[in-house]
TrEMBL record:
The chain crosses the membrane at residues 114-133. Pfam families: TpcC. This is Conjugal transfer protein. Keywords: Membrane, Transmembrane, Transmembrane helix. It comes from Streptomyces ficellus. The keyword Transmembrane helix applies. Residues 71-85 have a biased composition (Gly residues). Residues 18-33 have a biased composition (Polar residues).
Length: 384
């Protein structure tokens, strides 16, 4: 018998298969008589009913003999031992054998049964859950959108600045020089005169590249701000003025080229910023540290601020041409701790006049074995 069927019977606690056996007895041993069957019918000659024989063997040795249905039948013999587990010598064996179940077999049976029921329960739960909560298909991956290549804004600003300087500079005595300068960045096939009639004079004093507005198909528009001056004659002088110039460009491969004539536009007026609320000032601390700030700005104007700065702090000196007139005001922000910040308004003398400027000054408390004092640890211009 195979091992797999036996293991399954142990797990499911199934009995061993019974094999019907017929026990034949000699006519001399049975007395030549026929034992009656359990239902009153006679068995075949020379055969014994296995169930009756089993019951006879299970009776105690001193118990009453098992009799057949018919009168005068031969008395059944007692079993060879108590409980009828084992017959005496010469008797035929019982149709089954009783085996004690070992602890290992008992554990295997219980463990296998529990494992089997666990699988069944999990399968049932999973199936029921799928009725009410069917598995959703995984979401489709998001489409990969490839970002367009970044526009070469720095190159566009450089090309537009060079072109604008050549375009805004003209003179009746230098027509060829202007056309040669324009051809460096102008697309082939465009008239290098770009609408100029060849008269008058103009020059560029200052020029700055501004915003690059990227359009489609590699095209863009570059705002250039220029300070120009000129007049009707080559030597004529006129007040300088700021103008805006929009230069059309296009990216062709790795090169930025100007596609045509630009257009002069007005510079936009600045918008009003949101109101800024100055921090609350600490009057007592402002009075205590006013002399420290005055001394610092005197040293700042003479070119040696490190002498009054906090240890380890290096503050570059003020450029030449400025002299201290006064520290108009000093207000320390209300706060706590040994590091504070305040606002100073200082008047400088320069180029024959005076100008008032605002600074944010950081101070820190430096303590020594003898005493403590406040010193400047940072400086930058502006109110915030």
């Amino acid at each position: 018998m195979g091992a797999l069927p036996k293991a399954i019977r142990v797990i499911l606690n199934l009995p061993e298969p019974r094999q019907q056996q017929t026990e034949s007895r000699a006519p001399s041993e049975q007395g030549g008589t026929v034992q009656p069957g359990p239902a009153g019918g006679a068995s075949a000659p020379g055969q014994v009913n296995p169930w009756v024989e089993a019951a006879r063997r299970l009776e105690p040795a001193d118990g009453p003999a098992v009799r057949g249905r018919g009168e005068g039948g031969p008395a059944a013999r007692g079993t060879g031992g108590a409980g009828g587990r084992k017959g005496s010598e010469g008797d035929s064996g019982v149709p089954w054998n009783v085996h004690e179940e070992t602890s290992g077999a008992r554990f295997a049976r219980r463990f296998g049964r529990g494992l089997l029921w666990t699988v069944v329960v999990l399968a049932a739960i999973t199936g029921v859950r799928s009725w009410f909560f069917p598995d959703k298909p995984p979401p489709a991956p998001a489409p990969v959108v490839q970002a367009p290549p970044r526009y070469a804004e720095a190159q566009a600003q450089a090309v537009a600045s060079r072109f604008a300087r050549a375009y805004l500079t003209w003179s009746e005595d230098a027509v060829a020089q202007r056309e040669s300068a324009l051809s460096l960045d102008l697309a082939p096939g465009v008239d290098v005169r770009l609408g100029w009639d060849g008269k008058g004079a103009q020059r560029v004093e200052e020029l700055y590249a501004g915003t690059v507005t990227v359009l489609k198909d590699g095209r863009a528009r570059v705002r250039v701000e220029a300070l120009v001056s000129g007049g009707a004659a080559p030597k004529a002088k006129a007040p300088a003025r700021w103008i805006g110039l929009d230069v059309p460009v296009v990216q062709v491969g790795e090169r930025i080229v100007v596609t045509g004539a630009p257009g002069t536009v007005a510079l936009g007026r600045p918008s009003a910023p949101p109101a800024w609320e100055a921090p609350e000032s600490d009057a007592e601390m402002s009075t205590r540290t006013k002399s420290v700030v005055d001394q610092f700005f005197r040293q700042y104007a003479t070119g040696d601020p490190s002498a009054v700065a906090a240890p380890g702090v290096r503050i570059p000196p003020l450029p030449k041409g400025y002299g201290l007139v006064s520290v108009n005001s000093w207000a320390v922000d209300f706060a706590k701790g040994d590091d504070r910040t305040g606002t100073a308004v200082v008047t400088w003398s320069t180029s024959g006049g005076t100008v008032s400027q605002t600074y944010r000054v950081s101070i820190t408390r430096v303590a020594s074995a003898e005493a403590g004092r406040w010193q400047v640890s940072g400086l930058h211009g502006g109110a915030y």
